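LOG
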Amino acid sequence: MTKNVAVPEMTQNSSKPMQYPPPRSGNAGASYPIHKRFLARLEVCNHGVTPNAWTDSMKISSPTQAMSVSTLVDEAYIAWTARYPSALDRFEEIIGASKGKQIVMFLDYDGTLSPIVEDPDRAFMSDTMRDAVRDIASYFPTAIVSGRCRDKVYSFVRLAELYYAGSHGMDIKGPVKGPKNTKSKTKAVLFQPASEFLPMINEVFKTLLETTKSTPGAKVENNKFCVSVHFRCVEEKKWISLAEQVRSVLKEYPKLRITQGRKVLEIRPTIKWDKGKALEFLLESIGFANCDHVLPVYIGDDRTDEDAFKFVRKVLRDRGQGIGILVSKFPKDTNASYSLREPTEVMDFLHRLVDWKRNS
């Protein structure tokens, strides 16, 4: 069994400076200690978690109000962007890193391609964003990697030429034919490493639907290989009771664990599989396993995307390649190398990448 509570340590930048990402000074973050509450991480498992730990963690990753403009331009944010510069401002640097390499694009969905909305069933992407993703996929192998059910993500994106990794990478399927402008060997992929958990996940979903009825605003979503309990529309004073409801259900399922994102608690199998493993699997599936001429680029906004950023950084350290871009309007500790503020900037970045490829 896993430990009851895992609190990952803060990321330390102890590696030697590299050409990219830009060198990160150890003093760059010293000027924003007030934001440590935004940088803390807490992965919650089935047992032994105090109510205060639940709510503190929920508040850390799920601020109830958008940060003000003045906060976004204060010294703390400026110091943070010195460590994680804008991918738009450093676009030429990123392009330079891609010289002689095949870019493979990995994109989260919620908060990356679509804005975060109160009703997760209405997290629609704009037509202009869909066009941008379609254009990217015409030049580079492209995958959507989401905590959502794969079918739900596909219903939002509606682009058959992409790879889709739903349920945090536990449900993967790819297109039969790859992008026309790449030389990768694509094939239809269907990989479900947690299939044995399906009956258990369905059972937990039904139980949580009933258990959380007493909490106004709570929404339980079945993402096939994981269950999401959204508390975006729940009053903050009721978060602790909702967390206890979820915890009481999970006591009976030691093979499941709870992780946390922005205003969502996610119940997942305890198997060693995450978005980082999904990236590794997809790279192998499209013909780029242990390849020196590939540049994986991952763009995401939430805590669960850190597993993908860690994988990308590992690729960078081992073979000198790989780029992670965090979408965030406020300082966060991250394994990404660059940042973008919101989905509109993600779209701008995709447009610039397509324009560069067309012109080159």
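LOG (cont.) second protein
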Amino acid sequence: MASSKQKAVYWLGNDTLRVSAALFAENRGRLCRGLKAEKDVPAGSVVVLQGGEQKQRYCTDTDELFRQESFFHWTFGVTEADCYGAIDVNSKKSILFVPKLPESYATWMGEIYPREHFKEKYAIDEVHYTTDVSAVMKRVKPGVKEYEMESLFQHYCYARGGMRHTSYTCICGSGNNSSILHYGHAGAANDKTIQDGDMCLFDMGGEYYCYSSDITCSFPVNGKFTADQRAIYEAVLKSSRAVMAAIKPGTNTEESHKQNMFGPLWFGRLCCKGRNVCFCLIKPDAAAVEVCGVFQGIERIDEPGLKSLRMGRVVQERMVLTVEPGIYFINHLLDKALGSPAQCGFINNGVLTRFRGFGGVRIEDDIAVTADGVELLTCVPRTVEEIEAFMADETSKPFSPISSQKL
């Protein structure tokens, strides 16, 4: 009986050539054998490739003639645009990620095929949608419990990624709970009902083969930022991108942390609907390496905002770090600052009152340090416009789990 790889053939009829999917399976096998022979390739490695992207002519609805990216074609033989592929080096298991097309595609472009179609067409082991990884966000609606969101994340990690463990206790804070840095413990167990108008701060990561991710997304539960929510969020996003742009081998993490915590970005004024919002309390979480980065002989700095800095050392190439600035409105610290003669003069209490109960915003990304900068390993909606379009199902942009992006 012929195998599925032998049945899957690219052929345009008449006298055109037939190309079997077995050719691409053979290519993937050669790639895996070559990588396994390299001593520097760690066990459990996965090859991730991005296919070519469909482009339009001058922002019209006329598509340019598509040609697949050559390396992706050699590996998978896929003719469709906007796909990703992954190969487990040890098992040679192949996974194809295809875009989840909107219903309107069927009107303008033709039939929308199910995932099984691509699995059979290309003799691939598994097929998933490129948007599957970000599905943790769209399920959030007013009236659900925080722990329901934690449960969805854990289910996704295990069902799709084989990750029995999470990297740490999930933080699924909404409203004022998003200002609790380690929310989710036994005394505050992700049990609040999420309300319309809340900001959500979801800090969760999966662990696979003892490798952990650490990602935080902050977004409005109803899918639309208020002016105040947007002002706070964009200040944090600006800091996140500034830190990532500055990191390269030789960077001193302590200095980078100080510049973004105590610099003009934080103590300046941010225009919000014509009103000046003075940020009165900021607690950015600085870059933290996956394995504790404080070496013997390096002492922690006993100063507010710095004493919890977990990486007091110089950045080196191939380190994997998190960058996680945040702004939090923590009542007991605000009250303490208002009662301090040295600090109260810097606080606009009238503006501050509006933010009582706001909670907090944190944006956390995983990065790998390269020879001249960083590679961004996190790919989720980040700008206000991306988040609002994503939650409203107005974008088909794929958010891949592993991707290099320009900062």
